[in-house]
Design a protein that fits this description.
seven-stranded antiparallel sheet, NADH-dep_flavin_reductase, mainly beta, about 40% strand, Flavin reductase family protein, about 170 residues, Flavin_Rdtase-like_dom, Split_barrel_FMN-bd, three-stranded antiparallel sheet
């Protein structure tokens, strides 16, 4: 059962959350059979430096949720403005998401964006239920940075660093 605050207007809550700019990531993995899967997430954060842990939140209703909860590894790709359209594809159900990006595959067959602002490779440490989402906690095994600047998500649209927010 989901707890609800008495009198909380869901639209007002969503609007309030939209006022918090956040980074945009495309999170990828592969199923046990080798099929690539991914989703767009703006709920991503560093959790710990020692040990190196990150967290990313995934809608439990997403088609790929069972694959990620069973995955041994996943990759967080921090996207640049050049990936904005791709991030929209990865946020859409039913799309053949990997048909659109220039993905490479690491030595274990996990898809990554070579021109991302950063690529963070993780081992799934824990999957923790959190309301209508699951919090994927990843132990970072490798991180590399690219030359591009990240893009942010603000008030339902992409906002580039240095761009004025309306």
């Amino acid at each position: 059962m989901v707890d609800r605050f008495q009198g909380l207007d869901p639209a007002a809550f969503r609007s309030a959350l939209a006022r918090f700019p956040s980074g945009v990531t495309i999170v990828t993995t592969r199923s046990a059979s080798g099929t690539p899967h991914g989703f767009t997430a703006s709920s991503f954060a560093a959790l710990s430096l020692d040990p190196p842990l990150v967290l990313v939140c995934l809608d439990q209703g997403a088609d790929c949720a069972p694959v990620f909860m069973a995955a041994e590894r996943f990759i967080v790709n921090i996207v640049t403005p050049a990936h904005a359209e791709l991030a929209i594809k990865f946020a859409t159900k039913g799309e053949n998401k990997f048909a659109y990006g220039d993905f490479e595959f690491d030595e274990r067959g996990h898809p990554l964006l070579p021109d991302a602002a950063a690529v963070i490779r993780c081992e799934l440490e824990q999957a923790v239920p959190g309301g209508d989402h699951v919090i994927l906690i990843g132990r970072v095994h490798d991180a590399r940075t690219g030359s591009g600047k990240p893009v942010t998500w603000y008030r339902g649209d992409f906002l580039h660093l240095g761009q004025s927010a309306a």
